[in-house]
Amino acid sequence: MKQKTKYDVKDLSLATEGRLKIEWAGQQMPVLKLIAERFAKEKPLSGLTLGACLHVTSETANLMLALKAGGATVALCASNPLSTQDAVASALVKEYDVPTFAIKGEDNKTYYRHLNEILDFQPHITMDDGADLVSMLHKDRKNQLKGIIGSSEETTTGVIRLRAMEEDNALKLPVIAVNESMTKHMFDNRYGTGQSSIDGIIRATNVLLAGKTFVVCGYGWCGKGVAMRAAGMGAQVIVTEVDPIRALEALMDGFRVMKISQAAKIADIMITATGDKHVISRDVIEDMKDGAIIANTGHFDVEIDVAHLEKIKKKKTTLRQNLEEYVLPGGKKVYLLAQGRLVNLSAAEGHPAEVMDMSFANQALAAQWLVERKGTLENKVYVLPEDLDRNVARLKLHAMGIQFDTLTDEQKKYLSSWTEGT
Question: Is there a single domain that holds both residue 34 and residue 140?
Answer without folding.
Answer: yes
